[in-house]
Amino acid sequence: MPNTRLLRTHLLRILTWLVPACAPAASQAAILGHMTPPPPLSEARIAALPPDQRAPWQAYLAHSHALAAADRAALAAERGTGTAPPDPADDHGGGAGMPLDRPAAWYASAQARHVADVIASFQTPAGGWGKNVDRRGPLRLPGQHWVPGGKHFIGTIDNNATTTELRFLARVQAQAPGAPGQAWRDAFLKGVRYLLDAQYPNGGFPQVYPLEGGYHDAITFNDDALVDVVELLAAAARREGDYGFVPPPVAGQARDAIDRALRLILASQVVAGGVRTAWGQQVDVLTLAPVGARNFEPVSLVSQESAALLLYLMTLHEPSPQVVAAVHAGAGWLGQAALRDIAWTATPEGGRQRVASPGAGPIWARYYRIGPPAAIQPIFGDRDRSIHDDVNELSLERRNGYAWYGTRPAQALAVYADWARRHPLPAPAAPR
Questions:
Q1: 361-381 mean pLDDT
Q2: Which residues are designated catalytic?
Q3: Which among 199, 236, 376, 403 is placed 20 to 30 Å from 68, CA to CA?
Q4: What is the predicted pLDDT for the residue at 373?
Q5: Per-residue pLDDT averaged across 320-324, rounded?
Q6: Where are the domains of the chain?
């Protein structure tokens, strides 16, 4: 029988964010430290692993290098000694021209088919896609780079890249059975193989693949990148609807990849002071410890991506005891990280600022210092890698240019309130 008293006590503790709380006490702003860029995956780091752990990582790194070399060779062969066409135009919106919410019949239109042809033309030899390209434009020209701006970020899962292209191709091919849709199905399956190749031996996914180096090698929860990949693979594994054409062996590989990713999610939940808390925005590829990314993205616990991971875990059918424990702990951390009586808003003084606003909230900072729930503290990063305890101390450009606060955890906690009733924490074992 569920321990209803324990569940009731736990829910009351988790949902304290519903009760107005005092704003954080005013204190003198301070620089807490500076962000250190994370190390990439390298042969030297792999060599430092225990001998029985090295082989899969060595094989992964060698395959990544081979795919990167093949990409470069293919581009060089297309260009020959001629003049390279200009790079595609940069569209910072991401996902432009690939709507996923149209009626099924729209994906049979000439417009949708053109977009699918453009997508297929910009697929890299490795099988992925770059980001920030408007797919309504012209087909890729021979010798043209696959991404704006040259050599970097060729294949990526950042900004929903690759997964959006795959979802769009699935919708279009579903309206073109037989030979007319075969090229799009082939491009889709090549893209799924790309994602399977990109998965690390421990179940994580880098932001960029083949590996780019720097923080792009870190396992990326940022902007829901890993969750987005797992959900795409889950659709392929089910072989339903638009994904009914996926061959059973590929579906099986997708299921295996999802299982490994789930183990990675559970293993990377941060334990601080002996308590499970939340997740980092990125985690080190080998140690699974949270790492920083761009100069203003410090090592931290994150609220928005942790909420996304919890929402994903709560969709799992018959969750394991490990998943149940992870969700309860993560929701507990989110509940205690909620902030009230403050607002994040534009001010007459110029730029966005955190201001006192009695009765406002709940709202969550994006980043929190790593520590047990009792030591929760929002932190903020600036372009010079400095880490601050007060968002108002950041440069105007960074204050205005980043989502330092958000409300997405409220959605996760609302779902959790019902989920927890169906998946209570197990009662503690009776002492012997």
A1: 93
A2: 159, 294
A3: 236
A4: 79
A5: 97
A6: 1-35+295-425, 40-268
Query: 219, 155 in Cβ contact below 8 A?
Result: no
**pLDDT band at residue 151, thresholds of 50, 70 and 90?**
low
- Burial label for 238, CB within 10 Å (0-12, 13-18, 19+), is middle
| Model confidence pLDDT, tens digit, residues 337-370 | 999 999 999 988 778 999 999 999 999 999 999 9
Beta-ladder partners of 352: 346
The neighbouring-strand residues paired with 312 are none
Q: Compute the distance between CA of residue 71 and CA of residue 428 in angstroms, rounded to an integer.
A: 55
Distance of alpha carbon 333 from alpha carbon 330, whole angstroms: 5
Name residue, tokens 């600036």: 382
User: What pLDDT score does 353 carry?
Assistant: 94
pLDDT at 12: 40
Residue 82: predicted pLDDT: 81
Q: Class for domain 40-268, per CATH? A: mainly alpha
Identical fold, 1-35+295-425 and 40-268: yes
Indicate the pairing of strand 290-291 with strand 364-365: unpaired
What are the φ/ψ torsions at residue 32 (nearest 5 degrees)?
Answer: -85, -20
Residue 160 has a pLDDT of 92
Confidence category of residue 153, pLDDT binned at 50, 70, 90 = low
Token digits of residue 184: 């799009």
pLDDT for residue 430: 58
Task: For domain 1-35+295-425, give the CATH number.
Answer: 1.50.10.20
Distance of CA 420 to the CA centre of its chain: 25
Crossing angle between the packed helical segments 321-337 and 4-14, to the nearest 10 degrees: 40
